[in-house]
Structures are given as C-alpha cells and as structure tokens.
Amino acid sequence: GDSVTQTEGLVTLTEGLPVMLNCTYQTAYSTFLFWYVQHLNEAPKLLLKSSTDNKRTEHQGFHATLHKSSSSFHLQKSSAQLSDSALYYCALSDHGGSGNKLIFGTGTLLSVKP
Amino acid sequence: NAGVIQTPRHKVTGKGQEATLWCEPISGHSAVFWYRQTIVQGLEFLTYFRNQAPIDDSGMPKERFSAQMPNQSHSTLKIQSTQPQDSAVYLCASSLAQSQNTLYFGAGTRLSVL
Fold first, then answer.
1. Between chains, do B42 and A97 touch, taking CB under 8 Å as contact?
2. Quick one: pLDDT at residue A33?
3. Which of A73, B10, B15, B37 is an S-S bond match for B89, by CB 3.0 to 4.6 Å?
4. Using CA atoms, how far apart are residues B64 and B86, in angstroms rounded to an integer?
5. Is the bond leading into B8 cis (omega within 30 degrees of zero)?
6. Smallest Cβ distance to B107: which of A42, A97, A101?
C-alpha cells in the first residue's frame, strides 16, 4: 500500500542555517505530495503541495521539488528562523482508494535555536 | 469562517468508559476526515465521509470505534470501553470534495484514558 517515510524524528538547528527535512514515498498511483506544518497547540495547516515532476514549489520561504525518479519530496529553506520551530508532516494523496484521503508520515519536529 | 471546530478540547476518561468527540466542519465542505495523532505513529487516518456518506473506514479499530455524520454540520467519533492505548489527539479535518483539495484541520481533542 501507499506509504510516506520521514526519517528524522527531530531536527535541531541554529537560527540562520539551512533547513532540509526528508520525505520519501511509495505509491502505485499518480502522485500528489503535501507538506503540512503544525505549530505548538495549533492545528496542522498546509504549507505547500505539488504533483509536477521536477518543478520547484515555494511558499512562505520554504520550497520543495517532487522527484518521481527517486520518490522524494524534501522540504528546504535557505535560512531557519526561530518561528520555524514546529512539527512538519509530509503526506501523499491516496488516489488508489477513496479520492483525497491523505496518508501522512510520522512527522519531523524542527527545533530552531538562537 | 471559524474553521473546523472540535469539542471538547480535552477529555479525560477512566478505563472502560465511553468517549464521544465532536467535529463541526467548515460550512460548504462536503468531505470530513478523522485522524489520530501520536508521537510514535504521527497522523493516522481513521475514517472519511463525503456528503455525509461513509467512504472509507479502513483505519478504524473495528471493535470499539465508530463514527457518524448525521448531518452536514457535524460528525462524531465514539470510542467505547476506552483503553489507555486510545490516549491521543484526535483531529478532524474537512475539505471540498474535489480531489487534491486542501484539508483544513481542527485544533483536535486530546483524549486521556486513565
């Protein structure tokens, strides 16, 4: 079945350093990938999404490129800010099942320190 | 637009008791999802309604969990005979029914089973 893998449970960075959060996926169907962000005591919300191979998608300073050849959709930012500290989820749309159900990874907690 | 509303925000039950969680989706959204959030598993899909009809309950533990959507303005998740392993944050999300639309999450209900 479809699955999403986020290998880092916790990423700790110093403010100003680049961010890269890993996401790989497995699916037998067409591919639509998402990144959701959840700040402390808030609801998860969409950060960015893509279905186009090798096209960079950007939002709020973050960017990701879907690479179907390597089944990856890594999240990047050139310079981390303290306010980026949050839980980040990568997700895959389940085309094979019931339409727009999302399958999420286990999440990566990003902690940015001064 | 108040967003997705979930009540209660926190619920504490004793082992063996019943817990009912409520969700009010965004007006006009015809798809409603329930997810369970834990540190270990991340966001696990439970069940999904479209136009109030159950579409996919593949993530629901069969014996004690049930979900309903009696009208377009609310959905409930009921857990009978709660167990300590049911302790988690239960998140409701809604979206427009078209494929690949953004899921809008509520702030969740934190269930603690003592």
1. no
2. 92
3. B37
4. 10
5. yes
6. A42
Give the span between the Cα atoms of B22 and B4, in whole angstroms: 11
Look at strands A75-77 and A19-21 and give their pairing: antiparallel
Total domains in chain B come to 1
The Cα A25–Cα A31 span in angstroms is 9
CATH number of the domain that B68 lies in?
2.60.40.10
Containing domain of residue B96, as a range?
5-113
Domains in chain A (CATH in brackets) are 3-92 (2.60.40.10)
Instruction: Select from B54, B38, B53 the least CA-distant residue to B91.
Output: B38
Contact A81, A112 (CB under 8 A): yes
CB contact under 8 A, A89 and B43: yes
CA distance B11 to chain A (A): 16
Q: Would an 8 Å CB–CB cutoff place A45 in contact with chain B?
A: yes
Judging contacts by C-beta atoms under 8 Å, the chain B residues touching residue A32 are 100
Of A89, A93, A99, the CB nearest to B42: A89
CB contact under 8 A, A49 and B55: no
- Contact list in B for residue A43 (CB cut-off 8 A) is 3-4, 91, 104-108
